[in-house]
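During the reporting period the student researcher (J.K.) took over the structure-prediction task from the postdoctoral fellow and processed the backlog of single-chain submissions. One of the processed entries is reproduced below for the supervisory committee.
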Amino acid sequence: MRVRRGGGRGMRAIVVGAGIGGLAAAVSLRRAGCEVTLVERAPRFTEAGAGIQLAPNATRALRRLGLLDAVAARADRPSHLSFRTWSDGAEICRATLGRAAEEAFGAPYLQVHRADLHRALAAAVPSRSVRLDSAVVRVGQDDEHAHVTTASGERLDADLVVAADGLRSTARRWLFGADEAVYSGTAAYRALLPAAAVADLDLPEYALWLGPGRHVVHYRVRRGELLNVVAVFRAEAARESWTDRAEPGEQVREFDGWDPRVLRVLERAGRMLRHGLHTRAPLARWNSGRVTLLGDSAHAMVPFQAQGAAQALLDAAVLGDALAGATAADVPAALDRYVRRRLATATSVQAGSARAGEDYHLPDGPEARARDARMAAHAAENEFGPHAVAWAADAPEEPPVR
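J.K. obtained the following structure tokens:
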């Protein structure tokens, strides 16, 4: 399919991958005036995944994409985050969220089912622009256009290609060589269960329990109807999969000795999904000519600051901002602007998320006690918690008035 190229609103873009980052990129590029083709290897959209947290930097990006109200309508809004010790549930400190965080950062802190976020993004992309069951096997470009080739042999041409094709990105290999996904040394059990099933446990509404080599986080989604549970632990090896299931009772054995409330939640969750947490090494740049990376393909990170989706949404918002008003000839320079605005922040968050995991998993003893004291002192001076520094960063600039 040869695509005409021209300035302004005639410019064409191909987005590879229809996850959160890819869909957000498609929405953002359409709002910037591009005609977008979204190419996805899966034969249909599914409800993969479970809960996801959207800090104010993410919800500001959703507002810019015109989707905040649709996502917020299905979300839960926690009032605070409670950090707890693993064995007895004593509160280490708490972070203020709710209305105070919304006023301070200009947007709410939301907790949503990943499928609800995905559905809201997908609804903003016309079905005629989406090509499902189309795996991209090659990416290429010349001075005037970029293209992708699908597994069926079809070539699609456009003025730019945005690769939001995830952890094992084809485009990343094409642009920067065959670096491999890196196993983080940690794996996670995940489950959703009805909030009513744990109503008798006197659980904090949103809590992060810290223990030696492990931590557990739980929070509500779908307006409080469901409880999302993630239990992270160190493991020598674990597959990167959203569908592998743990052995019956495995998660309870792994967290033996933890606060009884945590164990009851893990028991009532039943058989949980189990997957290894993988990352990618930081890159010095994400783009070359008319092709750029976005989201996990550029900066896959462990989820210990709840910023993976947020950073992908910010990528998308800034990408659209950089391309607003651009012509086909402007694309390489516009992609340079996008990467300059995003790379340092995303790389910093990626590193900070890894450090947070190390901090959460300290063994009992002097190091853990020092961490708890440090967290409590920080909370006394910074009411929004240890990760709020990321929430103020990278609010996309308004495009120039034309």
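The committee noted the following: The first helix runs from residue 20 to 31.
J.K. will present the remaining backlog at the next meeting.
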